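Changelog-adjacent note: as of this version, every example in the card shows the full chain rather than a window. The one below runs 415 residues end to end.
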Amino acid sequence: MSNTDRQYDLVLWGATGFTGTLVAEYLTGTYTPDELSLALGGRNEDRLRTLADDLVADAQKWESLPIVLGDATDREGLQEIADSTRVVCTTVGPYTTYGTPLVEACVEAGTDYCDLTGELNWIREMIDRYHEDAVEAGSRIVHSCGVDSIPADIGTMAVQSASVDEFGTPCDLVRLYVDGRGGVSGGTVASAVAMFDAASTDPIARQALRNPYSLAPPGERTGVDSSEQRRPKWDPLRSVWTAPSPMAAVNERVIRRTNALLEYPWGREFRCTEAVPTGSGIRGGAVATLVAGGFGLAAAGMTIDPVRAGLQRFVFPDPGEGPSREQIESGHFAVRLFGRGTATDGPFVVEGTIRADVDPGYGATARMLGEAAMCLVRNETATPLEGGVLTPASGIGESLVDRLRDAGLTVSVSV
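Full-length structure tokens:
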């Protein structure tokens, strides 16, 4: 059966989880059954039916929502689900633990796929195991379609496109500045714990966390960038102090993979970095020092098995728990991009912004993941790549920008 002759356009896998429910609410509140053939997927039939009934009552445009049952470890059942749909959108993590059989099923079926993972070790494993098979099958496996890493990856592509259009050459450096306020769910924490668990025993997983080019194609895993920022730094580009960004490890590597997959349109000397601005003067330096110190302690604690286990048991929220609706609505985030390059008539600067006035990890992420899935459903992609283990920018491209704007995000670029 071809990808276009499927029972469903989209299966939302993990629909009853914390983030999955937000994505389901977004999709059913934004689209109609005439626009999208949607099925809710998971392992608990009662919870799925309750969610389907609630969504139908709230959205009103939907008379019913079909459900598909399966288990993340049941390879045969997952194959039936992948065979039934054009696209699978999954929020089921930790992906290191539960994600691989679904990716394998989608590649086997030639089904497109998108997720929220920031688990570098697992993305690296999927690249090494399935990229070539996905290229051959025409299956687009698009990882990191939430706050990690759509703003960074799509924002960098938008800045580079504006640079080429205006100055005839790409920026040789794009620096990202992240600011925001939001909550953390148990599922997000569980993914981080799974990544550090893997790194404690698997040398390839450790290498994925250490090498700044670990997500690049084999043979391309070196370059000019060093590892992500770990200390407070004075930033001469914006004249502010900066602290490490917790998202930099994922976002920087995803951007570098985009450049490599697209055959280096931004050059092999292209550099990207991400940080959190903390202000100028003595106060800005003090805040940067405090943030960097806290970040370093947290990262160190996560590398020690007993400490990591204790944090997960006694401190972190349980899977399924997350910020309240009020916290989601009161959150916000902004990713500001500063691109610098040199044209024939001298240096230039391109600036970009992606922001939203909702919690970044949940309210905004639900919209980003939902719209990434819709781009795949409707084949709205601005990229030469038709299959493979891809990034948001290399797998979907700038066609996602208009959808993000329609979803309430601000996306702007100025030269």
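Structural remarks: Residues 270 and 395 are 20 Å apart (CA to CA).
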